[in-house]
């Protein structure tokens, strides 16, 4: 009965904390504590039996960037959603959160993985669609396709156009190179795309993600945080001076913002800087040797 009850709980995607509360009350003598351990125990066969369990994603429980709430409004529209921006601003995490939001048949591809690109390397676009349907396990419902790092396969834009026009496939894609994407997509997706630029965190998002006050924790949209901050007096704003100084010094890259250790913050920034010079500058310019520019 434990397996069946937990399966029902998981199938409606109840947050892990609620699963833990439910199980601790209903099964107080169980030899494991914590929702994560419950999930692990089920995966290990502890609750084996007649369970139909879907994965409880950590991304569904994470805090959301403000852009998330805007993107959700366009999920029913036919156009492809293109999320672009600098490296390490959280594009992949944002798209995975949208992926968890979608209840339709859906597929995820990472074009940093050559094997994922093979699904679209066919001159017969109808065959591509049929293979996607087969992989998703659907026949009639609308198909959602999520593609990370789309700039690695430029020909994909023609395929996307064809699948949108003929089969109404919904595409949500990301790419790291702003300039490249802006020049790639207008060629074949004119009138069929919504372009969203994900910047580094604003100071409002910084306050939200660092739990600097109870109000910001509860305010999960930019509008709500504006309402909260507009009620503050000058004295109340003074308590954020140190936070603002930290924000100005280290910036708004999500991993940097959510890292408390100063040494690790600096190391993360070094890695982002190195990645930008080694990949984006080389891709977007004719510069072959970037060391002189870097120095």
Care to describe what's here?
By secondary structure, the chain is α/β, with parallel strands linked by helices. The protein is 51% helix and 9% strand. It is built from 17 helices and 5 strands. The chain has helices at residues 2-11, 16-26, 35-43, 66-72, 91-101, 114-117, 125-136, 156-167, 178-184, 203-209, 214-218, 222-229, 234-238, 241-250, 254-257, 262-284, 291-294; strands spanning 80-84, 106-110, 144-148, 170-175, 193-197. It has a 5-stranded parallel sheet with strand order 2-3-4-1-5, with helices on both faces. The longest helix has 23 residues, at 262-284. It starts with a helix and ends with a helix.
Oligomer: single chain
SSE series: HHHHEHEHHEHEHEHHHHHHHH
Kindly, what is the distance between the CA atoms of the first and last residues, rounded to a whole number of angstroms? Answer: 65 Å
Q: Which structural category fits the helices and strands?
A: alpha/beta
What percent of residues adopt helix (DSSP H or I)?
A: 40-55%
Rg to the nearest angstrom?
22 Å
Number of strands: 5
Adjacency order of strands in the biggest sheet: 2-3-4-1-5
> Based on CA inertia axes, which overall geometry fits?
globular
Mean pLDDT: 75
Approximately what portion of the residues adopt beta-strand conformation? 5-15%
Key features of this structure:
alpha/beta; disordered N terminus; 17 helices; single chain; 295 residues
């Amino acid at each position: 009965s434990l397996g069946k009850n937990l399966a029902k709980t998981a199938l409606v995607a109840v947050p892990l904390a609620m699963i833990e509360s439910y199980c601790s009350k209903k099964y107080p003598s169980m030899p494991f504590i914590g929702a994560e351990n419950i999930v692990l125990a089920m995966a290990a066969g502890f609750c084996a039996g007649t369970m139909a369990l879907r994965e409880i994603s950590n991304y569904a429980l994470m805090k959301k960037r403000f852009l998330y709430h805007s993107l959700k409004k366009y999920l029913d529209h036919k156009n492809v959603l293109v999320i672009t921006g600098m490296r390490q601003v959280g594009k992949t995490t944002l798209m995975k959160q949208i992926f968890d939001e979608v209840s339709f048949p859906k597929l995820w591809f990472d074009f940093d993985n050559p094997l994922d690109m093979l699904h679209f390397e066919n001159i017969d676009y109808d065959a591509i669609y049929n293979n996607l349907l087969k992989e998703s396990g659907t026949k009639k419902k609308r198909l959602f396709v999520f593609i990370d790092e789309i700039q690695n396969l430029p020909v994909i834009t023609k395929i996307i156009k064809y699948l949108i026009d003929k089969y109404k496939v919904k595409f949500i894609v990301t790419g790291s190179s702003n300039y490249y994407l802006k020049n790639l997509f207008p060629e074949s997706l004119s009138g069929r795309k919504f372009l969203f630029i994900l910047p580094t965190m604003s100071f409002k998002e910084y306050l939200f993600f660092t739990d600097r006050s109870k109000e910001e924790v509860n305010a999960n949209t930019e509008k709500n945080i504006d309402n909260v901050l507009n009620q503050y007096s000058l004295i109340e704003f003074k308590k954020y001076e140190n936070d603002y100084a930290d924000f100005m010094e280290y910036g708004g890259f999500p991993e940097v913002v959510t890292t408390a250790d100063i040494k690790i913050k600096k190391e993360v920034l070094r890695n982002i800087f190195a990645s930008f010079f080694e990949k984006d500058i080389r891709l977007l310019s004719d510069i072959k040797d970037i060391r002189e520019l870097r120095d």
